[in-house]
Amino acid sequence: MGQFLEVLIGGLMSGVLYSLVALGFVLIFKASGVFNFAQGAMVLLAGLALVRALDLLVANGFPLWAAIVLGIGFSAVIMATTAWLIERFVIGPLVNQDGLTLFMSTIGVTFVIEGAAEMIFGSDVYPLRLFPTDAWFVLEGLFPGGILVNKLDVWGALIAGILVAGLALFFQRTKTGRALRAVADDHLAAHSVGIPISWIWFVVWLAAGLVALVAATVWGTKLGVQFSITFLALKALPVLIIGGLTSIPGAIAGGLIVGAGEKIAEVYLGPSIGGGIEYWFAYVLALAVLLVRPQGLFGERIIERV
Amino acid sequence: MLYREAGQFKTTYAEDMAIFPISQDRIALAVLLGIAFIGVPLLATFHIWPFGSDYLLWAILLPFLILALAAIGTNILVGYCGQISLGSGAFMAIGAYSAYKLATGVHIPLAWLGFAVSIPPLPVLASILLGGLIAAGVGILFGIPSLRIKGLYLAVATLAAQFFFDWAFLRIPWFTNYAPSGSVNAPALDFFGLIVQSPIERYLLCLLLLTLMALLAKNLVRSNLGRQWMAIRDMDIAAELIGIRPLYAKLTAFAVSSFIVGVAGALWAFVYLGSWEPLAFSIDRSLQLLFMVIIGGLGSIMGSFVGAAFILIVPIMLNLIPTELGVPLSTETITHFEFIIFGSLICYLLIKEPHGFARLISIGKEKLRLWPFPY
Amino acid sequence: MRVRDTNEILLQVEGVALSFGGVRALKDVSFNVRKGEIRAIIGPNGAGKTSMLNVVNGFYHPDRGTITFKGRTRDRMQPFEAARGGIARTFQNVALFKGMSALDNIMAGRTLKVRRGLLWQALRCGPALREELEHRHRVEEIIDFLEIEAIRKVPVGRLPYGLQKRVELGRALAMEPDLLLLDEPMAGMNLEEKEDMSRFIVDVNNQYGTTIALIEHDMAVVMDLSDRVAVLDHGVKIADGTPDEVKNNHAVIEAYLGVAH
Amino acid sequence: QNEQFIPILSYRTGPYAVNGAPYANGVIDYYNLINERDGGINDVKILIEECETGYATDKGVECYERLKSKGPTGAAFINPLSTGITFALTEKTAADKIPIITMGYGRADSKNGAVFPYNFPMLGTYWSAADIAIQHVAKELGGFDKLKGKKISLLYHDSPYGKEPIPMLQVLAQKYGFEFTPIPVTHPGVEQKSQWLAIRQNRPDYVLVWGWGVMNSTAVKEAAAVAYPREKMIGVWWSGAEPDVTPAGDQAIGYKSLMLQHGAGRFPVHADIEKYVYAKGKGSTEPGKVGEVLYNRGIVNAMLGVEGIRKAQEKFGQKPLTGEQVRWGLENLNLSEARIKELGFEGMLKPIRISCSDHEGTRDGRVQQWDGKSWKIISDWYTADEALIDPLVREVSMKYAADKKIQPRECSKES
Amino acid sequence: MRVSTPKVVGVATEAAAPVLSVNNIEVVYDHVILVLKGVSLEVPRGGIVALLGANGAGKTTTLKAISNLLHAERGEVTKGSILFDGVEVQSQSPNDLVRRGCIQVMEGRRAFPHLTVEENLLTGAFTRRDSRSAIAQDLERVYAYFPRLTERRNSTAGYTSGGEQQMCVIGRALMSRPKMILLDEPSMGLAPQIVEEIFEIVKDLNAKEGVSFLLAEQNTNMALKYAGHGYILENGRVVMDGEAHALATNEDVKEFYLGVAGAKRKSYRDIKHYKRRKRWLA
Lengths: 306, 375, 261, 415, 282
Ligand SMILES: Nc1ncnc2c1ncn2[C@@H]1O[C@H](COP(=O)(O)OP(=O)(O)OP(=O)(O)O)[C@@H](O)[C@H]1O
Ligand SMILES: Nc1ncnc2c1ncn2[C@@H]1O[C@H](COP(=O)(O)OP(=O)(O)OP(=O)(O)O)[C@@H](O)[C@H]1O
Ligand SMILES: [Mg+2]
Ligand SMILES: [Mg+2]
Description:
The structure holds five protein chains of five kinds. By secondary structure, chain A is an all-alpha fold. Chain A is built from eleven helices and two strands, in the order H-H-H-H-E-E-H-H-H-H-H-H-H. Chain D is of the alpha/beta class. Helices cover about 40% and strands about 15% of the residues of chain D. Chain D has 14 helices and 14 strands. In chain D, the strands form four sheets. In chain D, strands 5, 6, 7, 8, 9, 12, 13 and 14 form an eight-stranded mixed β-sheet that branches. Chain D has a two-stranded parallel ribbon with strand order 1-2. The longest helix of chain D has 24 residues, at about 295-315. Chain D is globular and about 65 Å long. Chain E is an alpha/beta fold. Chain E has a domain at about 15-100 and about 180-185 and about 215-260 and about 270-275: 3-Layer(aba) Sandwich (Rossmann fold), CATH 3.40.50.300. Chain E has helices at about 60-65, 95-100, 115-125, 130-145, 145-150, 160-175, 190-210, 220-225, 245-250, 250-260, and strands at about 20-30, 35-45, 50-55, 75-85, 85-90, 100-105, 180-185, 210-215, 230-235, 235-245. The longest helix of chain E has 18 residues, at about 190-210. Classes of the chains: A mainly alpha, B mainly alpha, C alpha/beta, D alpha/beta, E alpha/beta. At the A-B interface, helix 4, helix 9 and helix 11 of A face helix 6, helix 9, helix 11 and helix 13 of B. The complex binds adenosine-5'-triphosphate (2 copies) and magnesium ion (2 copies). One adenosine-5'-triphosphate sits at the interface of chains E and C. Chain E: Keywords: Amino-acid transport, ATP-binding, Nucleotide-binding, Transport. Chain E: Belongs to the ABC transporter superfamily. Chain E: This is ABC transporter ATP-binding protein. Chain E: One of its GO terms (biological process) is L-amino acid transport.
C-alpha cells in the first residue's frame, strides 16, 4: 500500500513535469495549428541561455538573486528573439500550408536551434540549482519509511498549475484568445478578417518560449542543462495527445494520467515482462485513449461534415 | 524547345496511360537505368573516378538505394494514403528481425501445448521477402487504429508502434536468438549459391530489388487501388460516399507500405549493416524517412528518390566540405554548422515549395514547355 | 427514353427524425422518390435538406424512421453500402479529391466496378490492364458528355468552381447509380453554366433513366426541371407536390419563397 | 609521404557529447605529442582526421567508410568509442583488414582473437568489469561467502552496451548465491523515477550502474532523492568520470566506480603534453581538463595504438603500415612495467600483454570514490577471474564463428 | 465591342478620387499559371460596382489581389498596381487593409469551424478599437439581419448548414464596420428570400453609411439591379464595362448573362446543345 501510494504520487508528479513541456506544444498548436516539434529544443535553448548567463554573472560577483533575475531576463530576451526569427523566416512564409508541412518545418527549426544553442552556449552539462532537489518523507507514522515526495516535483507541479490556470483564462476569456483559435482554424480567413497573424504568432511563440524557460528551470534543476533535455519533447507527446492537442487543462490531465499510468506499469508490470516498458506504455495508453476519443480527452471535436 | 510534347500524339488510352507518356522522359529514364545498372558497376570494378575507393558505393549509394526503397514505402502510406506515420522505423525493424529469424531458423517452444513449432533456416532471399510480408501483417494490425484516429493524432499514435518494437527487439531475447548483448549478425548473403559479398554485388542486389519494387509501386499508385488511397487522403468522407471502403483502402496502404519498408529494413540489416541492434531503426530513422518523403514530394514515387538522396547526402556533404576545403574548424563546430545549415535548408525548401522536389520538377517541366515565354 | 410515369417507388423515407444534441434537424419526415423522376427538395437555409441526403446515403444515422431503397429497408447503413446499393451524390461544398486530376477523380468513381485485386494491379498487365482500359473508356464517355475533355489532366484544386462541380457530377455518374443525389449543383454558377448543368441533368435522366433527387435554391431551375417538389422547413415537410402546386402553397410562400415567383 | 593515417571517430555533439569530447581530446593530444616530441613514430608522422558520429551507428559506418582508405596506407586502426558502431563494424573491419581497438568496451567475446582477429578489446571487457565489481563488493562485505543471499541490482543502459555484463553477472550470481536483478533504463536515461522507486522498495545491497552520458548523473540524483546510499552504488568505468558526478553536486559524494586501470590525475606523460602540445598552443581542450578521467582514457587508448604500430614497425620496417601489418603489431604488443614507465604512464597502467588467443591483454581494475571534488582510489588491484570468463567467451565467440561461417585461427600455430 | 480603356468611371457622385483603383494587374499562380492578364477597374467612393463573369474568369483572383491574400495561395501580382484609399495595397498586410476599412468576404463559406457562430461574428470585430457596447450593438444588428443566426448563435460553426455559414461570414465582415466590402458570391447557397435580404443590406449600408462595394456575383440580375457600375471579366481580361443599367440593356449581356434573349425566358428544360464560350475574345 505504502509503495503503491508512493509510486502513484511520484508518477503523478513527474507526469506534471512533462505537462510543463506539453504546455508549450498546446499553446502553439492552439494558436496556429502547428505541431511544434521544436519545443524540446526550445527548452534546451532557454536552459542553456539561463545557466550560462547565471554562471557568468555569479563569476563576476553579482549576488545570487540579482544573477537569477538578470539571467532569466537574458534568457527571456533570447526566447523573444527566437520567436521573432521563427515567425519571420519560417512559419510566417508558410502561412496557409497544411499541418504536415508546418510540422516538418519545425523539425528543421529543431535542428537549427540545437546546432545554434550548442554552438553559442556550449555542449557540456551545466548544473542548475534553482529548486530544492531533496525529498520529504510524509506519513511516516502510517507507513514504514514514509512516503517519498520529491520537493522538486512539488515545485514543478505548483508552477505548472499556475501556468495552466493563467493560460486557460487567457484563451477562453480574451479577444486575443478567440483570435488565436480563429487563426488555428483557418489562416486565410483569419487574414481576411484582419487578424494580424504575424504578430499573433510572434506572441504565441514567445509565450511558448517562456513556458520553455519555465520548464527549463525545473528540468535543468533535475537533469542539469544538457542536450538530453531535447528528448523531453518525445516524452511530452503522449501527454499531449491524451489531453488533446488543443486543451491547456488537458496538458495537465494528460500528464497526470501518463505519469501515474507509466510508473505503475513499470513498477508492477515491468518486472514480469522485462522492464523498461514505460516509454512505449505511455504511447500505448495514448493510443487506447484515442481509440475511445479520437481528439484526446479534452481536445476540440474533429469536425466532419459534408 | 527541348521539352515539347507537340507531335507526340497518343492514339490509344493505353499509350496515354504509360508510365512516361512523353518520350523525353522515357529517354532520360533509360539513360539513368543504364548508368545505374551498367555504368556504376563498370566504373567501380575498374576503380575509375569517382569510385576510387569503396566509399561512394558503400557509404552513399548503398544506403541511398535502401533508404529510397523505404521512402517509397513510407510515401505510399503518408503521401498517397495520407496516413501520417512516425513508425516507419519500427516496420523496418520488423522486416529486419523477421528476416533474421527466418534465415536462422525459427523455433517456438509451445511448452504448454506440449510441442514446438520449428522452421528450418530459409534461404536469404525468401527470408527477406517473408520478412516484408510479416511487416505487412503487423502493419495491418497497427493500421486498424487509423480508422478512427486521424492526422497528427495518428502520427503520434504510430509512435506507439515505434517504441513498442524498439523495446520488444531489445528486450525479448527470442528475437535476437538469445544473443547476450542483444546485437545480432546477419547470415551470409547466399543467393542460390551465389554469395553476395563485395560492395558492387551488394549494390546490384539492392538496385535490382529497388527497381522492381519501384515499378510495382508505381503500377499500384496508377491503378484503382492507388486512386482509392489518394481519395481517402484528400477527402475520406467523400471517398466513402462513392463506395470506397476506408477499411480496405487504409489497410492495404498500411500493408503495401509496411511490406516495402520491411523489405528495405531487411536489406538495411542484412546488406548494409551486417550486424545491428534496435537503435538502427529508432525514431530518428522514422523521422528521416518522413523527411525524405516530404522533401521529395508527397505522393510521388520519383520524389522519394530525390528526397532520399537529399536527406542522405546533404548532411554528408556539409560535413565533408569544410575538411575538403581545409577550413580550420573543429569537428564540433562543423557538426553544429551542419545542423544549422541542414535545418535551414529544410525550412527554405519547404517555404520555396511546400510540395517538395516533385512539384519543383513538374513546375520546371511546365516552364520548359512554355519556354521561352515565362508563362 | 424516360420512364418517368411508372409509379414504382425507388426510395421511401418514412418518419425520419434526426437530432444533434439540442438541434433537431429533421422531425418526422416522410417522402418518396419514384423511379425515373427528378425530385426536388427545397426549403430555407438550415431546414434540413442536406441532412436529409446525408441520412439517405448513410452518412448520418436517423434517430427514428426507416429508409427503404429498392425494396430493402435499412436502418444503420454505412455510406459505402449505400454507394454499393446504387446511390451516388454530389456535395454542397465541393468534395473532390484535391490532389488528383479530373480524370483520376472520375476514375475513382468506378471503384465499385473494379474486379482485379491488389496483385494484378501491381503487375498491371493482362486482364488488369484490360480492365483498366475498359474503365477508362467508360470514363472518357462521361468526360465527353460533360464537355470537360480539355481539363482531364488538370489537378482539380486548380479548377474554377463551376468546373469542379461538373467533375463532381462526372464522378457520381461514373458510379452508374440508380439514384443520384445532387446537393445544390448550381450554386455559384452563372446563367450559362446553369443552363449547361440543367442540360446534363435532364440528359442523364433521359438517357440513362437515372433517378435524381435535387436540392437547389434557384427556383427557376427547380420549377423547370423537377417532376415533384418536397419542401422542408425547420426539419418538417411542409408541402409536397408538383412544382405548380408548391409554388402556390401558402405555407411555402410564407416560409421560403417570399413574394410569389 | 612518411605518414601513418589514423582516423578518429568521435562525438562532440548530441546526448553523449559530454563524455565523447574529453575522450577525443585525450586521443588527439597524445597523437600530437608523438608528432611534436618525437617527430612521429620512429619518424613516421601521425596524420589524423576526426569524424563526428554523434554516437549514431549509421553515421559511424559512414565515417569509417570515408576514412578507412585515407593516407598513404589507409587507416592504421579504428576506435569508434561506441559499442553499437563496434558491432556494425566488426565484420567490415575484418574484410578490410583494419584492426578495431575497443579499449574497455565493445563485445566481450571478441577477446578471442582466433575468431575475431581484428578486434582488440584491450584492458578489459564488460565481463571482466562485472567480475571485478563483484570482487569489490565481496571485499567490502568481508568475503565471498558473505555474498550469499545478498541482493545486487544492475541498473543498465538498455542497449548492447548495457546488456553485455548480464550473462557474466548471472554466472556470478549462481556461483556466489546472491540475488541478481537487472533493471533497464531506456536511452538516453533521463527518466529513472520508477526504477529508483523500485530500488527504494527492494533495498538491494548494492546497485551496479552501467550507464553512459546523462543516465549516470541522473542515477546519482535519483539515488539521492530516494535516499539510497551512494556508497552502495558502483559504476562501471564508463560511469565514473567527472561529468557523471558534477551535475549531482554534493549528492554524488560517496559514489563509487570501477577504474579501467587508470583514473584521473596527472602523470609524467601529462607534463610532456603540457610542454610539447599545450605550450605551443596546439592543445585541444582547456588545460584544466587535462588529467580528467575520460581525457586520460583517451591518451591511454592512443598510446596503445601507437605502441602497436611501433611494434609492427619492428617487423615491417619504419614506414607507414597497412592495417593488416598494424594488426600484427597489436597482437604482439607487450608493454612491460619498464616500458610503461618509459612512456610516462607509470602508476596508471599495469603491464599489458596481448596474444592471439587473448586480445584483452590484462583484466585488472581498481575502484575509486567521489569525494565531492575529485576521484579517490580506494582499493587495490583486482584481477578478473579468467577461469570464469574464458568458457563464456569461448562459447559465445564460437557461436559467432558458426553463424558467420568463420574458420577460427589456430593460435598455437601463429608466430 | 470591347471597351478597353477604363476611363474615369461615370458614376454621378463627386469627382473625388475613387476609393479603389486597380491598374492593369497581372496575376500568376505557382510561378507558371497566368490568371489575370491586365485587369483594371475602379470603385468610386460610396459606389457599388459589380464584377461579372463566367467561372474561372478571375473574379475571385481579382478580389484576393485587392485584399492582398494571394500570397498565402502561392499567387503573386506580377504587374500593375492597386490603390485603396490612396495607399498602395501591395505594401500593406491584409490586416492593415482591414484596419483601413477594406474587408473581404471570401467565397466558399470560410467560417472558423471550431468557433461558435457568435465567436465567429466577434472575430470580425478584432480590428475595432471602440467600446464593447458598440460591438454588442453591431452584433444585434447582424442578428436582426439574419434571424436564423440568432437561433444558432451558440452552435459550432462547422456544424451549421451551408447557408448558415454563408450568413455567418457575411455577418462577420459587417462586424468590422468597413468602408469598403469586397463581396465574393454573397448569394451562393442562400434561399431566395435571404438573397434579397443581402442585397437590401448592401443598398442600406451604401445609402446610410456610404460603404462602397465590389461585388463578384453570378446572380447577374440582382447584381446589375443594385450596382451603379459593372465590369465583365472573361478569361482574365475585362471585356466590357459600363453603367449597370446600360449593361443590363445590352443585347449580348441580356442573352448571355440574363437569359432573356428576345422577349421570354427560356425554360431550363429546353436548353439545346450549343457552344458560345469566349465569344468576346474570338
Ligand atoms: N453534424 C451536425 N451537428 C450539429 N448540427 C447539425 C449537424 N448537421 C446539421 N446540423 C444542423 O441541422 C440543421 C439542418 O442542416 P442542413 O445542412 O441539413 O441544412 P440545409 O437545409 O442543407 O441548409 P442549407 O440550404 O443552408 O444548406 C442546421 O441548423 C444545422 O446547423
Ligand atoms: N491556387 C490556384 N492555383 C492555380 N490556379 C488557380 C488557383 N486559384 C485559381 N486558379 C485559376 O485561376 C483562374 C481564375 O480563378 P478564380 O477563382 O479567380 O475564378 P472566378 O472568376 O472567381 O470563378 P468562380 O466563379 O468559379 O468563382 C481559374 O482558371 C483557376 O483555375
Ligand atoms: Mg445544405
Ligand atoms: Mg470565384
